User: Which sequence fits this backbone?
């Protein structure tokens, strides 16, 4: 297994005194789909921001498999909100990372390809406000993937969507992950979503966040509705829910 | 409460008629009463001219009035253009340097809160008359542009800001692709205020200059006609000034709608 990124004893304290993370150790390997699971405020989003380089750890280190720091465009991030530029068309939004990193050659083809992959061909000229919440999130995912990043970071991307849309996007995301062979770090507070999507679930403790349990989910891919309603899925959910309850200092009734 | 369906479908049409029709009816009624009063009491035109007399003056003096209108509009347009460039430009500079903003912003506020009527006589001493009028039109229009653009540039979505950081955007990329588009709705709102204010600034300066005997704008015509007790012409000039103000506001509103219609909530027409 090749590590893509390793967090070594990472801590993060904010100026107001909040200790979000303490002594967090985590290695993400190539090709994995890792979910960070924990209660609200356990620092999972903070961990994601540290990996993305949008914040600096106050202790420990974020070490990249390549040795140095990732180049621009080697990371893709999907936020909780679609975070699209309302004044720009879908195509211009997806193209933004290519513009900012000065990779204009065959940009149009890359954008069209990504839009097709997320199921949005025909919507290139639409504006974000004309799209539904789920479609906006698809645009956001296409934008994160358009630079062909090594690592995709997702911060509770589907939390605000209805369940039907969320299931659809879960499936679309898994398809993309298999087709493109990406490494994904996915932050969620949903046990069911984590088990359905992940190859590995890292359960975190409440503030300050640390790793409480590291659970491999070795159910085969492709996973679909049969998996979502199967007995092994339910058993895995129970195991993970117990680990989460343990991390929060509670016991599962 | 649910109204009958037929009522619902008729409402837009009736609303529109009421919105346009009622003010027009009120105007016609008002003018008719005015005309009637002047006629009934035989009020001389130098005290209160009848609407018909004002209309006649408007036609009779059209060459003079249109020339004055053009002079005022030219000053207004120049003052507005300078305010847009100066206000938005300074706000962009402020966004690049907090230090500069902290140094200069208080003076921009002082310029705004000092009544322009009080500044105009001083400007007329130090500047040639046309330039002083232009300066007044600029001063009052400048601040709304500066304040609105500054606010707009500061109200960028934090996640989008992070996204630009993630891809290592340069300052220029951030400014052109993120901050200015995000500020655009507020800049356009500032422009709508600035357009009306630059007309007011020009008028104030013309009135102040009027007593000095120079100038040819509409406000100067009002002052001059006042000295001559040519009251119908005063009303005619006032009417043109109002029309100019309305036209400026309508034009800027239309421009704003044109620019924002594809994406901004303010330009979205929603079903009731």
Assistant:
């Amino acid at each position: 297994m090749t590590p893509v990124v390793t967090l070594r004893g990472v801590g993060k304290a904010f100026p107001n005194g909040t200790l979000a993370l303490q002594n967090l150790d985590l290695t993400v390997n190539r090709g994995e789909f890792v979910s960070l699971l924990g209660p609200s405020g356990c620092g999972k989003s903070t961990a994601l921001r540290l990996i993305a380089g949008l914040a600096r750890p106050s202790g420990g280190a974020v070490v990249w498999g390549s040795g140095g720091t990732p180049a621009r465009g080697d990371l893709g991030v999907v936020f909780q909100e679609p975070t699209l530029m309302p004044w720009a068309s879908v195509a211009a939004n997806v193209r933004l990372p290519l513009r900012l990193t000065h990779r204009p050659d065959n940009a149009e083809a890359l954008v069209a390809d990504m839009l097709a992959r997320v199921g949005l061909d025909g919507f290139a000229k639409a504006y974000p406000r004309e799209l539904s919440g789920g479609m906006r999130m698809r645009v956001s995912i296409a934008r994160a993937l358009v630079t062909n990043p090594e690592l995709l970071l997702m911060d509770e991307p589907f939390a605000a969507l209805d369940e039907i849309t969320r299931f659809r996007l879960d499936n679309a995301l898994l398809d993309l992950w298999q087709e493109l062979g990406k490494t994904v770090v996915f932050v969620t507070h949903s046990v069911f979503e984590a088990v359905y999507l992940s190859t590995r679930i890292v359960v975190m403790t409440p503030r300050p966040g640390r790793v409480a349990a590291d659970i491999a989910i070795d159910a085969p891919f492709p996973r679909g509705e049969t998996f979502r309603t199967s007995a092994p899925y339910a058993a895995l959910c129970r195991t993970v829910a117990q680990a989460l309850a343990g991390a929060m200092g509670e016991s599962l009734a | 409460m649910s109204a009958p369906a037929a009522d619902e479908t008729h409402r837009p049409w009736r609303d529109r008629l009421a919105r346009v029709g009622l003010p027009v009816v009120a105007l016609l009624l008002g003018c008719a009463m005015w005309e009637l009063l002047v006629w009934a009491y035989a009020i001389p035109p130098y005290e209160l001219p009848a609407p018909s007399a004002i209309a006649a003056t408007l036609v009779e003096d059209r060459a003079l009035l249109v020339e004055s209108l053009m002079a005022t509009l030219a000053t207004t347009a120049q003052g507005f253009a300078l305010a847009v460039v100066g206000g938005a430009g300074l706000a962009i500079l402020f966004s690049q340097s907090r230090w500069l903003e902290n140094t200069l912003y208080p003076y921009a506020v002082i310029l705004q809160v000092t009544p322009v009527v009080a500044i105009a006589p001083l400007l007329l001493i130090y500047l040639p008359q046309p330039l002083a009028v232009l300066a007044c039109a600029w001063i009052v229009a400048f601040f709304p542009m500066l304040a609105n653009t500054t606010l707009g540039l500061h109200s960028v979505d934090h996640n989008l800001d992070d996204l630009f950081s993630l891809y290592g955007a340069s300052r220029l990329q951030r400014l052109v692709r993120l901050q200015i588009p995000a500020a655009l709705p507020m800049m356009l709102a500032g422009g709508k205020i600035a357009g009306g204010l630059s007309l007011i600034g020009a008028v104030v300066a013309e009135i102040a200059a009027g007593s000095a005997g120079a100038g040819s704008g509409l406000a100067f015509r009002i002052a001059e006609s006042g000295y001559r007790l040519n009251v119908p012409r005063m009303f005619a000039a006032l009417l043109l000034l109002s029309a100019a103000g309305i036209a400026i506001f309508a034009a800027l509103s239309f421009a704003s709608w044109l620019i924002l219609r594809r994406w901004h909530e303010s330009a979205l027409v929603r079903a009731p």
Residues 68 and 218 of chain B are 5 Å apart (CA to CA). The radius of gyration of chain B is 24 Å. The first helix of chain B runs from residue 5 to 40.
